[in-house]
Amino acid sequence: MRKLISIVMPSHPLEKYKKLLTKKPQVNDKYVIIDVKWLEHWKRYVGIEKSDEEKVTEPGSIEFSKLVDPATAKNSNEIQLRSDAVEGNDYTFIPYELYKDLVQT
């Protein structure tokens, strides 16, 4: 007698990313601070958000330097967020799982 095995194919990465971006935070979830402008560019690049541009350029590597207090930038063990950085305007949080995917691609 044969045993049937059900295989669930992973959904399209875009759907996975959309889910992660709208996921409600849970206790013990890990999040990463990310530059809002970089994230918005990436969303347009992968098609999560529509763009007026015909072709959106690749966003490049994730850049954190604009978020870091220059006085602490030289000491990589204790960097701090700029005191004038505003959540939603300069930075936002993304799930660590999404961050891992972004740095691997």
From TrEMBL:
GO terms for molecular function: cysteine-type deubiquitinase activity. Residues 5-105 form the DUSP domain. Pfam families: DUSP. InterPro entries: DUSP-like_sf, Pept_C19_DUSP. This is DUSP domain-containing protein. It comes from Rotaria sordida.
